[in-house]
Amino acid sequence: MAGFRESSGVADARDLRIAIVASRFNDVVVDKLVNGALETLSRMGAERPDINITRVPGAWELPLAAQEIAKTGRTDAIIALGAVIRGDTPHFDYICAECASSLSRVSLEHSLPVAFGVLTCDTVAQAQARCGDNSENKGSEAAIAAVEMAQVLRRLDT
Questions:
Q1: Which residue in the list 43, 71, 74, 91 is annotated as catalytic?
Q2: Does residue 3 or residue 117 have the better pLDDT?
Q3: Which CATH number belongs to the domain containing residue 54 in this structure?
């Protein structure tokens, strides 16, 4: 539109420092999310020394690790990866809601992109469908979102 200045992110991870925080619980799924994120970051120009991976026990622990990483001021974006699969108790609801809310709070409090790549699925089959070697890999999608938001913030800061 004429007369308006628009800021948007680009899929360029060169010179960005990216932190990946990934849960070990449901590692068969989460490892595929991590691989999807790493492959996508590589395609966008990220260098391996600029990517730090931190493993935590489960999705509940992702926000605390993200917060501590954010406090350092040494990262341009965080990608949170995990998988919570519904069971027979309300435990799923508590974990998913608090994980999402707390990661959002870390992002806002630190003015830092925190991409939500935590699968919240009813079945293992749903989780498997979202972590495959295809364009549906949610780890890859979270990496794209993290990079684009880091670029948006850089533009808004200048």
A1: 91
A2: 117
A3: 3.40.50.960
